[in-house]
Amino acid sequence: HYQLIKTKLNEAPTFVFSILDSMIKGSVYADTVDYKALLIATDSGLYYVAGQVSDERFLQHIVKIFNASVDQGKRFTLFSPSAAWDCAIEKYLKQQVGKIQRYAFSFDVQTYKKRTSSNKNEYDVAKIGQLEILHCLEFDSNYYDTYWDSTDNFIQNGIGFCVKDNAQVISESVSIFKSTKFAEIDIVTDSNYRGKGLASIVAEQFIDYCLAAHIQPRWDCDVDNRASINLGTKLGFINPQPYSVYFKIRQNAN
After folding, report:
1. pLDDT > 90: what percent of the chain?
2. DSSP state of 10
């Protein structure tokens, strides 16, 4: 019923659509056959709640999943779409979770086209493949196994570009998640090469690829990540909307 569920979601994190488009593995839980409330989960431990704040049984199911993640030592990161869901999550998970605020941006193609383009002539820009992953900065095979189920799945369905200094990868941008309509950007640059505009170069390659493929690029970041906000704004990402993310607090051993 994934295609039907997609019609119920006006907005959601990219990983939700990655699951619903069968780009990555995941699970979907619903309160009723009418899908009034949904919990959508990646195998890596990311969760998103959507729809109406539901009944006790559905909320207790979230608690059960959380408790299982604690017992099994697995990740539990829950994305909330609204203040109402924030209240429910905090009520049922109490002091067991921490909270961060993030921004989700909208992409304005006209702002992007009016920007001052980066100078790419000085650097070797390449599409990320097996060789680049072997010499990556941060996005290694473990990263793709976590978020894409496998490196092969990423190479077949994902988006990635890097800048090299000779054979050394010094900046890279990849789709941490992608669906048929959206691709969320993840960027890292070697600390020794920062301040040279490399993040702009790999981001522009990523965005240009998305536009050619009729895919909407997406940019999310923590509300206090000023460098990311400034770069995203420069690249046409506007109108930041805050949302909450809850994460499992590590319990001290007795």
Report:
1. 82
2. S
pLDDT over 90 at 231, yes or no = yes
Chain centroid to CA 241: 15
Task: Quote the distance between the C-alpha of residue 203 and its chain's center.
Answer: 15
Average pLDDT, the chain: 93
Average pLDDT over residues 18-37: 92
pTM of the full structure:
0.93
Q: Where do the H-state alpha helices sit in the chain?
A: 2-8, 14-20, 56-72, 83-93, 109-113, 130-134, 141-148, 151-157, 198-212, 226-234
**Cα distance between residue 136 and residue 139, in whole Å:** 6
State the helix-helix crossing angle for 83-93 and 56-72, rounded to 10 degrees: 60
How open is the CA angle 248-244-23, to the nearest 5 degrees? 80
List, in order, residues 6 or more apart from 85 with CB less than 8 Å away.
49, 53
Q: How far apart are CA 164 and CA 172, in angstroms?
A: 9
Confidence of residue 121 (pLDDT cuts 50, 70, 90): low
Residue 246 to residue 98: CA distance in whole angstroms = 6
